[in-house]
Amino acid sequence: MKTKSRVLASVLALGLSVTTLAACSSNNNDNGSNNAGGASNAGNAAGAKDTITALLPPVSPTYQENFDQMAKDFNAKYPNLTLKIEPASWEDMTQKLDTQVNAGSPPDIAFIGSDGISKYVQQGMLMDIKDAATPDMISDFDTAPFEYMKNGAGIYGFPAYMEAHALGGNKEFLEKAGIDYKNVQKNGWTYDEFREAIKKGVVKEGNKTSRYGFVFATAGVASKDYLGVLVKGAGMPNAFTTDNKYAYTSKNYLEVLKDIRQLIDDGSMPKELSSVDAGKRWNMFLTGQTMITGKGLATFENSANKNNEKIDANDGSAVKGSIKTDYIVLPVPSFAGQPPVTTVAVDGYVTFRGKKEPSAEHKANVVKAAYFLASGKVAATTNNDLFVANITKSGKTAAEGMTTNRNPDNVAAVGVLLSHAAPARPDIPVELGAKAIKLEDEVIVPKLQALLAGEISPEDMYDAVKKAAIDTFGEDGVVKE
Amino acid sequence: MNPTKKSFFRRRLESDNSWGYAFIAVALVVFALFTAYPVASAFIISFQDYKPLGSTFIGFDNYAETFKDALFWKSIRNTIIYTILTVPVALLLSFAVAILILPLKKWMQTSFKAVYYLPAVASGVALSVVWLWIFDPMDTGIFNKLISLFGIGNQNWLGSSSTAMFSLVFMAWLSSHGTSIIIYLAALLGIDTSYYEAADLDGATFLQKLRYIVIPCLKPTTLFLLVTGVIGSFQVFQNAYLMTGGGPDNATTMVGLLIFNNAFKYFEFGKAAAQSLLLAGLIAVVALVQFKFFGKEVEY
């Protein structure tokens, strides 16, 4: 009896151990098949069955609802291919992808920002599709956004859209402040004009400010945006000059820092700006606590319209305390006499490889899937939902029958902004790019937070950035004037 | 079947030693897979420039870079300050709450234990959202509303270097006592009541009983909680990551956050592994010092 119970206990114990080990091994198997994409189909003949995996976040409000239809349509177009979509939230998209990348088994396709390309190129985990993307596919895309998917000589996917980082204004408040916003939309504004305009937007009740002229999200995920957006219009469209010298040691950079501080000291922006995150400032905009907000994306007009409808319908899910708001797209001001340059976000379907070299057939299949997602009906539906312009000929054609309730002035304003979009810089070596990102994270963003909180002066921040830049890139690697 | 071999197996089957090894094998396998292997792997990676498609051996470069990195030393300093400010106060609060709960009826003790343990079960992200609301820098924030009653203006709690660390410390003070309270309570219940009876006969006051009976009897528990508290505090990551992101001006960048950033933001796994091992070494030294100075009079 004693021996029997021991045997039973040991069987259970062994079972637990085996389960533990099995969990690990099945994980490895999964990795293998994900990677397959790349590896396990190496021997497939043309037309042979293949599965393409895609890790996709909720790109637009209805995007993930369409996954089944997208997979079906893709399979109908390519009967031998299966598009296996793994949904991810925006919050865990990066972590999920990075974990898979570092385990050597990423999905074949992931929807990410083009600014993430250099990071994965450095890891050696992106799949260059320049020999698999057909001329027909490439010519379908507008040149400017397509360039963002390149790094060095390689092409690492297809862009989904090119979105301008603008500002957003409340039409009623702009008019009350006497700002000719239509003229600003067409012709832009300088920092001095902008400064005076937002001063007029401030409303005070006694000592308390009930409405600010301008609030930009600077905390959390938006911490990099503010300065990054402003310096583009100060003669620094990229962190590196065309001869690959680090640009943020330029005197214009110091001018922008001084101006950032000045807007807070004027009282046009809240002194607590360093803690205002994206959600907070959007709430402030909808509740009438600011005249202008940033950064502004095209989809914000959609959000504002929807909130207006809820207010009209007396729907309790409208933002608490919100007022009806006509969202107006405004350009970011230019600084130091420099021409305006618009920051753009080009996001798209980036192609990954596993530890093993993918076969030519699989690569071609991945390209077909990435192109399917980035063009035609899928792109048109998504971009229409996002209020962003289509960047493929096929997408534009597919979107012809689709309607949106966009303000035509805003559509035209975005057109103007995109006409001077910051150009892509695939020529910047990945090592330089990685160093610049680290310098931004470890020096620029923390110092900017201190500058916004009034703890250091613009000069202090400029000196700290300059010192770090020289330490990182060397005396000859930075701009000197 | 060979009878000698059969009897050997039977002997093994009936031996207590074999069964003992079989049972601990489960824990051993789990430990080997999920603790020993990652640590050994981290040790190897710390000497490499890690890449998924093939790493290269770079000797002590990761360690050398870490020692030269001003941010690493700042993060160590921040972590030490955070530990000094949180651990002793958290212990004191847990001890005080346990003492207050002790005289209550059993069902009330259980209720309080559950209430205090609740934050440990709740999602850290959800808790952070609540704390972000409490620390809201505008006049809608709870703390700002509270201080406005005393005529003090809005404070940028998480956005200013002068208050960001304190805000994280305050959050730790109020949200991480469940385990300590339960352990203290168990230890308090384990003290022989005859000590209190003898003290009562001698006319000892509450404070005297606390000083001469409770505190000495709880020394092993306090030491345990102190050592584990310091270890946990040195590894703090979540609060800084979710509340401040390490800012402003790296005023709340802890070592744990720095390691996370190096590994998962910049993919510098070699450097992150080196920093992890240095942190482990530092924690070991601090634990040894604690045992050396506070463990002298502890009887187990």
Proper CATH architecture of the largest domain in chain A:
3-Layer(aba) Sandwich
Domains of chain B, number: 2
**In the CATH hierarchy, what is the architecture of the largest domain in chain B at level 2?**
Orthogonal Bundle
- Provide the domain count of chain A: 2
Q: Count of DSSP helices of chain B?
A: 15
Residue fraction in strands of chain B: under 5%
| Gross geometry of chain B | flat
Global mean pLDDT of chain A:
89
Number of strands of chain B: 2
- CA(first)-CA(last) distance of chain B: 52 Å
- Percent helix range of chain B: over 70%
Major sheet description of chain B: 2 strands, antiparallel
Task: Produce a short descriptive summary.
Chain A is of the alpha/beta class and 481 residues long. Chain A is 48% helix and 14% strand.
Map the helices and strands.
The complex is a heterodimer of chains A (481) and B (300).
Chain A: H1 2-36, E1 50-56, H2 67-77, E2 81-87, H3 90-102, E3 109-113, H4 117-123, H5 135-140, H6 143-147, E4 150-151, E5 154-155, E6 157-164, E7 166-170, H7 171-176, H8 181-187, H9 191-200, E8 203-205, E9 208-216, H10 225-232, H11 251-265, H12 278-286, E10 290-296, H13 299-312, E11 327-330, E12 344-351, H14 360-374, H15 376-386, H16 393-398, H17 408-419, H18 430-452, H19 458-473
Parallel strand pairs in A: 1-2, 1-3, 9-10
Antiparallel strand pairs in A: 3-12, 4-5, 6-12, 7-10, 7-11, 8-9
Helix pairs in contact in A: 4-18, 11-19, 18-19
Chain B: H1 3-14, H2 16-45, E1 48-49, E2 56-57, H3 61-68, H4 70-101, H5 106-121, H6 124-134, H7 142-148, H8 161-175, H9 178-189, H10 193-201, H11 206-217, H12 219-234, H13 238-244, H14 255-265, H15 269-294
Antiparallel strand pairs in B: 1-2
Helix pairs in contact in B: 3-15, 4-8, 4-9, 4-12, 5-9, 6-13, 8-13, 12-15, 14-15
